Each structure stands twice: as C-alpha cells, then as structure tokens.
Automatic annotation (TrEMBL):
Residues 30-181 form the Tripartite ATP-independent periplasmic transporters DctQ component domain. The chain crosses the membrane at residues 22-39, 51-70, 91-113, 154-174. It is a multi-pass membrane protein. InterPro entries: DctQ, TRAP_DctQ. The keyword Transmembrane applies. This is TRAP transporter small permease protein. Part of the tripartite ATP-independent periplasmic (TRAP) transport system.
Length: 189
C-alpha cells in the first residue's frame, strides 16, 4: 500500500512539475498579447481580440500553474502560528485542510464540466453522460456558446483548460494528502 502511495505521489508530482515548468513561461505569452494590444492601439487600429485573449491566457496560466504552486508549497498560507508548529502538527493541519480543498475542487470540477457541456450546446442535466455520448457517438455538439464581446470567441476551449487544471489540482491535492498521511506514519517523503 505504501509503495502504491509513493508511486502515485511520484507520478503526479512529476507530471505537475513538468507542466508547471512549461506553463510558467506563459507569462511571456501574456506579455506579448498585452504588448501587441498597446502597439495596435497606439499605431494602428485597436485590436478587438487582445484584451479578451489576455484574460484567457491569464486563466490558463493561473489554473494550470496551480498544481505546481501547491506542490512547491508556494501557495498563500497564514503563517502566524503554522511556522512554529512541529512537523507532525503541520501534517495534521495540512491533512485536515487538504480534505476541505479536495471537496471544494470536486464541486468546482463538477461545475466546470457542466459549464463546458453547456458551452458545447448541451442543455440537459447530465453533463458527464453528454461527454460519454460524444465519445460513443450518441450525442452531438449543438450551438456553441460564444462570448458576448465584439470578438465573440467560443468559450469551450478555455472552459476545457479549466477542467484540465482543476483535475490536475485535484490529483495534486490527493498527492499532498498521501504525503501528509505518510508523514504521520513516520515515513520519509
């Protein structure tokens, strides 16, 4: 059982570390979009798509970088008391709080799947069966949701990125939960 936990931890941590190291360069993509926005507004006709694309890039940067941030321990933490606690007490506190985070991420993931199904033209109440139907061919994509801006891009790509990011964050939180449980058992992580 412990070997399986270590395998899961190593696999998820490696995946999120690699993806996080790639995604962190997304800030340059965001800077390029905003630079083009400034240049086009100054010298040419303003581009309609730049600010909304910058928002999409920022969402992707933030949500795909979240699992790496949790893994590195660089998420915001109230260190008023936590810094003085023993490693065992920290593990207990982290174990309890990560359980709440896993529940919260599960609710967010369920909502993101429903929202993505809606953006693909599904108006029913079972978004998971809709995606299963897409795979088997029993469902079809309907009229796709677009943004209300003048550019009017489809919203399913960024919503799909949100599903991926929330899923990876959920995997990373389970990894952190297992690490805390192993620490409480006296295992070296």
């Amino acid at each position: 059982m412990i070997r399986l936990a270590y395998s899961y931890i190593n696999g998820v941590d490696a995946l999120n570390r690699r993806l996080g190291r790639i995604v962190m360069y997304g800030i340059f993509v965001l800077m390029g979009i905003l630079l083009w926005s400034s240049v086009s507004k100054t010298f040419f006709l303003p581009s309609l798509w730049t600010l909304e694309l910058a928002q999409f890039a920022m969402v992707a940067y933030y949500i795909l970088g979240g699992p790496y941030s949790i893994q590195m321990g660089s998420n915001v933490r109230m260190d008023l008391l936590y810094g003085e606690w023993s490693p065992r007490r920290k593990a207990w506190a982290d174990l309890i709080t990560v359980l709440f985070l896993i529940f919260y991420l599960g609710v967010l993931l369920y909502g993101a799947v429903g929202s993505t199904a809606y953006s693909l033209g599904y108006w029913g109440t079972e978004p998971f069966s809709f995606f299963g139907g897409l795979v088997t061919g029993s469902e079809e994509i309907g009229r796709m949701e677009t943004s209300s801006s003048a550019w009017r891009p489809w919203l399913w790509p960024i919503k799909s990125v949100m599903i991926l990011g929330l899923f990876l964050m959920l995997l990373q939180c389970v990894s952190e939960l297992l690490k805390d449980m192993l620490r409480l058992k006296g295992e070296a992580i």
